[in-house]
Amino acid sequence: MDTVPPQLSAGPRPAPGPAADEGLARRLRALACTAPLHDLDARKANLAGEYSVYGMAEVALAAIDLVTLNMDFDTGADHEQIVSRLIPRIAAQAPQRPTAEHERVARWVLENLINVGSVDRGFRAVYGTFAPDGSYVRRDYDFKLIEEVPGYGGAVYLRTTDEAVNVLVGALDTDVTSAQIAAEVKLEVLINRGRLADAQLAAEQARYRTVQYSETLRRALEATRRNVRAVDWLNAVPDMIAEALDHVADRYRHENAILTNIRRARDESEDPEHKRRAAELVDIVKDCIRRHTQLQSRLLEAGPLFRAEQDRQAFAAPAARAGLDLYGQLVAPVLPLPLEQALRVTDAYFARGTGLRTPVSVRVADLVDILLTPPMEREHLGAEMPEPDLIATPDDSRFSEEQLASAMELLDLPSDAPRRLSGLLAEARRRDPDLPYLVALLAVHAASPPVGTAYRQGEQKLLFAVDDGTELDDPEFGGADLIVGTALLDAAGMAADRTEAA
Amino acid sequence: MTDDHADGTAWGEPDPVAAPAGAKAAVTPADAADAARLVAFGLQPKLGPARDQEYAELLRRYRDDPPFARLADAVAAGLGLVVLEVSPRAGMAVTAAEDSVFAVRMGDYARRASADAGDRFLHGLAHLAVAAMAFPRPEDLADDAYIGRVTVNGVDAFVRQACRRLEERAAEQGENTDPASDAPGLEAAWRIWARRSATGATKDARRLAGSTTGIVGKAVAFLTDSGFLQRTGDDSGGTYRTTARYQLQVRDMAGGAAMAELLELGIVPVSDGTASLLPPEDSDDLELVADAGLPFHS
């Protein structure tokens, strides 16, 4: 007998079995996802220069945060934008260092999160598990934190992977849908009890979940778009869309309710700190709603697209002979095979599917000619530009620059002392008989001040005019005697708002 | 007799009368030169018969003059070429036989591929996926009038989606697909594609050659040079449409060869894997399998 009898003396099995091991494997993978962040702090000493002041793991987490929040439905986050938004945090870590160094740190962290150095642009961790037969197997776990995806017009965008979102949110190995619902229930409870600080944290988590959820749906829609036959158009897809629409409606209602609650909290709260937090919370929930609306419009587009594809593919005349189903009979069966076997199939396809190439042969005579030909002189400067013939255009402005400067000086009022238009006109008339027209014009413009523009451009102050019903008594002008004044704007606050909104 | 013969050729009835006449007449060097010239046209796959009068003339002669056709076939065979079709739409569609000097070798195609089995697989799969995307349904591959359209990003996304399905299925079944560290050859093929990044930023704004879109981009550019695809635009990483030659090549050469290899591995396609992807039109698939002569009964 060749067979070896069972080795009873081998002792107890070293592992409790694959079922118990699976949880361990999952946690090991989760742990592996955090390794690249720790690694950043460990490796910063190797950089040329003194970089130990920077908290690299912190910068990395902030980067993952930024990419996740800026990931749009269609593309992803822009590389340069992420770098520029990271810089303030890095600058805060070492304010005395030059900006160029801050930027270098931002790029270094981002490149390491993508892991530019490896051909897969990903990370690999090795861990061990016990196979069902009790043997110990070392396995490779490949993962990415930030991946680069193609966007519109060949640009490259950044996306955070599910692994990264899970590490970031801290809820490892959870179901997307249920985690979202849990996060929102928690938020509601917190708001009802008036605990806004915790509520903000929960709202941010809800937003991460929202992004993750729309990402899942985007992938499903993308697949259905590609091939009508690749999906169950009869049941599964309409069900999926209906479910997703229900989900959006549900979340929309839910988040609107939350929004109403927080708005009330914001308006009723006395504590300015509470007010500010509630206002931030409003923004976050609004962003959630915006993302849901975006998702909904995508869902509504899917139906007509299906019908058009269905028309094109299903109602054509049937072909005389049956062909080979390239996907179903070749691609699909090859993908699950082990690499060694799959290679035989793809090699066979490659050998016969690439066509022919006529071999290149070189004659020695040609070679000599080619080697002795001097390189082409390239024109660096291009053709000579003709001297432009300029004609001075007559200055036909109604008012001169000096007049404008004078009017602006007149209207440069202190913020606490607004003036009547009648007084301004009289003063203007003393300086220049034409000036009152300009002043009146500017005052009328100020009746509808360009608030939006001032907000976007971060102006410090803004000229405004108000009609309080007083009649204007003036030899040249009629209408209301406007009160003209200057409003001071909170430029710093607006700038912060703008970054938040973007 | 001679009158009959003259009438026959004048009216363009080749078979019954002209063939014996041609067999009697010896092949002249000029005929051989013309036959070789036709094969030479076939070796320029981007050249269409519509754009060259001499090419169109030789194609007409191939159709109307069987001895000349046999001569041209013999020239092609002697050069190590396989004639796929000779027609006004495809021209003299020839392709390289195995071990011919005209055959494309993976080592020349991509240098890294000869050293790294994973890269070799990715390049091969990219070509297979481009064909699968260009002819998504069996009817499309069979229909001579069908023109397929592919985009680089589309091909990558489609393979990724297939990989994702396999990943999800493995996760559902609780399988651990992470490969053993000491046996990379046993890693599931889909994981290699899924693991490779889709794109990447480079210093000179070109596509990252090692990324999957870079690999697909190389494949479509190569197929364009082979006269199999025509570039139509720059959207989604480049859009292309197929030519008649590509359909012939995939249908008559590559598809069958890959299928044979797959069958040799003991895998009979159309299994539960396919059903998950083509659910409603099961009847079509069964018919197709019967016609293809596969040993398959559900």
From TrEMBL, chain A:
Per its UniProt entry, which superkingdom is the organism in? Bacteria
Q: Where is this region: Disordered?
A: 1-21
Per its record, how is this protein called by name?
A: Uncharacterized protein
Give the species.
Answer: Streptomyces jeddahensis
TrEMBL record, chain B:
Could you tell me which species this protein originates from? Streptomyces jeddahensis
Annotated region Disordered: where? Answer: 1-25
Q: What is the lineage of its organism?
A: Bacteria, Bacillati, Actinomycetota, Actinomycetes, Kitasatosporales
Domain of life, per the record?
Answer: Bacteria
Name of the molecule in the record: Uncharacterized protein
The annotated regions of Low complexity compositional bias extend over: 15-25
